Amino acid sequence: MQVVSCAARGDGAGVTEAVEAGASVDWIDREGWAALHHAAASNKTEIVNLLLAYSADLNVRSMAHGEEGATPLHLAACIGNTAVMRLLLESGADAETLDRRGKTAVHWAALQGKLESLKVLQDYNCNLRAQVNGRGTALHYAAAFGDMEVVEWLAERGVDVTGKDKNGRLAKDVAKRNGHRHIHHFLKEETKRQPSLSRKKSSSNARKPDLADHTSAPLPIPLPRTIFEKNVTSWEEAPIREATRGSPANSNSAIASKKKGWIIRSMSVGNKAGLKLQMGEMKKEMRDMENTLRAKDVQIARLQGDIFTTELEKVQIENQLKEMRTVSGRGTGSPGQQRDPYTKEPSDNVCSSRETPPQERTALLLKLQDVKARLKKEERDRGDERYVSDLKIASLTSELEEATQKLKKYGVRQKKLLSKNKSFEVDLTTARVPSGLPDLGDTGAMNSTVQCLYGVAALRNYLTTDAYRRDVASRGEVTEALAGVFKALKAGVQPEILAKRQHLQQVVESLEEVPRDDHRHDAFKVLTLLLTWLHRDLCQADGTSVVSQLFFGSHEHNVTCRWTGADVSRVTEDFLVIYLDVTADKEISLQSLLAHHYQPVSNEYECPHCLRSHLCRKQISVTHLPPILIIHLARKDKRVNVTFPSSRFMVHEVIKCDSPSFELFGAVTLQTKGLANSRQHTAFCRNLPDSTWYFYENERVHDVNTRRVLDQPNTNILFFSAEVNK
């Protein structure tokens, strides 16, 4: 396991240490990848070299769900890591290895439009014309992806444009189905240009891979992938579903068997995600270009200043020349004027000075010519700079617009396809009775927690509209899983709800940081784990997330010396839940518990003012209350009833803080049933459109009145909203 984690980080020393300590170099981690998969996917050639030196299996299979037993070469070709590809091929990797769908590295490269990967594979004599077990050629994949350059390159190298998949579709049909009209037109014209006989001959002579050698070999069984999903789905069997990045295909979906055929789905290296990545790179290049242009504008401004200075110098020189011509005319005099014989002849110095003006004029004329030449050069340089910059901006703008239009087409096509399935049009806001969640044997702790979190409108809309995707800072496995459950609840499709709920359970069990039995049956621990993981997944550079904005409040712990009154310590910390101990032996109100919790207490501290340990006064005060206030009632005696309001909960009247009134919208209770006193968590949630309260016990859902919610004797968790939760 250490080998894989070190390889993923690029830690060569760690890899060496782990292997020499006896670790297997081909160990498969929880994600389904070996160390060589991680190194190949992240383009770490040094780690690849190191692993090969320790005799790593070049053709080790991925056991990740959706990757169909891909080898490191398949992943490198799909991502475009050509340096790793050459290293693997030179070390003896089988370029014609098939995955479980029958795809070679050529098909993986074409699937993502990686022309450089295809060129590398051609250099190593890979079969560009291979067919995927009757499912089409690399040209079909390239046509589906929509890269004209790759399509043209494959067609030029003899890949049959008339080859059909098992459904009888040509590559041009695939391009048209995916909205690539320009590629459809090109392939249509290419089909007309190629003689039929030549095409048949080329097709019959094309070398075919020996499928028997590969399909007869036993392949590892894929494991569910929970942490790092790269969902590579073939076009024939891709279910019509919401195009969400990295969401696993679900065979239990109510719509999994409909609308099959040549629709490329988004994945971590997939079509839509690739377009978004391409757009992001182009936008970054545009920003860099704008910064460069600003620098060039400064340079052009300097050139303009130089031009202005040069023009001034030119005017000054022309004025000097004009003055010299005037002085020269005066010194020469009229032609008929005779010299006075008694006038003393000027000295040699005077004569020399009268001969100087023509020399000065010549020098000034030469200087003027030089200034004019420099002026023209500066103007020409300025024009060239602007011309090149304008061309670059126009090119980038055109590429960005084209990518934006592609992305819009994918979005429109997905909406049209999804709209044909009416089950996705059901919404809890319009449904008469909300959906329950299946019982997976955890006493309802997870189900009741998820139902209450689903009642937080801001969080529900954030996850169901995919707004969270722009904020996911880590791999986001918990966020993806919870968003899947929320979307299934919104759709109201029971098979989809079951599948998404099972996936969430798998993710939680794979990431649990405490023993399973310690938290599976405790709704409070499930709640804190879920919100902590969500915050970790969505945390931005400034430390904030939608979780911190909705659920985080802040406390100030102030300890003062009882003798001097000086501060011993003052600490501010965030809180997710207000934890209240219920120690009373009779019925007590929530307001009384809060007031008692925030009362000052005396504890012994090491006082820096008195230089000794003594009793000091500790005061906890609230500096900020979140929009969603969660209160946990920790009971020692389950029979003690705690009363709480359903609306107009004035927290500021109980403790000193600036806060609005709060309304109750959710509650989790712990009930005991049967002779064995088995525990069962249930939830009460308020449906916002009509303010109706519903009782949730796993799949069972029915409406109740407000009084039943308030009369529950074993309420554990209360959810309050600072305003009407719409």
Structure description:
The protein has 726 residues and is of the alpha+beta class. It is built from 25 helices and 13 strands. Among the domains are: 2-215, Ankyrin repeat-containing domain (Serine Threonine Protein Phosphatase 5, Tetratricopeptide repeat), CATH 1.25.40; 231-325 and 358-423; 445-546, no CATH class. It is extended, with a radius of gyration of 38 Å. Residues 196-273, 334-356 and 413-432 have low confidence and may be disordered.
Layout of secondary structure:
Layout: H1 2-9, H2 12-20, H3 35-41, H4 45-53, H5 72-79, H6 82-90, H7 105-111, H8 115-123, H9 138-145, H10 148-156, H11 171-177, H12 181-193, H13 196-205, H14 211-215, H15 271-332, H16 348-419, H17 445-454, H18 457-464, H19 477-491, H20 494-511, H21 516-519, H22 523-538, H23 546-551, E1 553-561, E2 567-575, E3 578-582, E4 588-589, H24 590-597, E5 601-607, E6 612-624, E7 628-635, E8 642-643, E9 663-673, E10 678-687, E11 692-697, E12 700-704, H25 706-710, E13 715-721
Parallel strand pairs: 3-7, 4-8
Antiparallel strand pairs: 1-2, 1-6, 5-6, 7-13, 9-10, 9-13, 10-11, 11-12
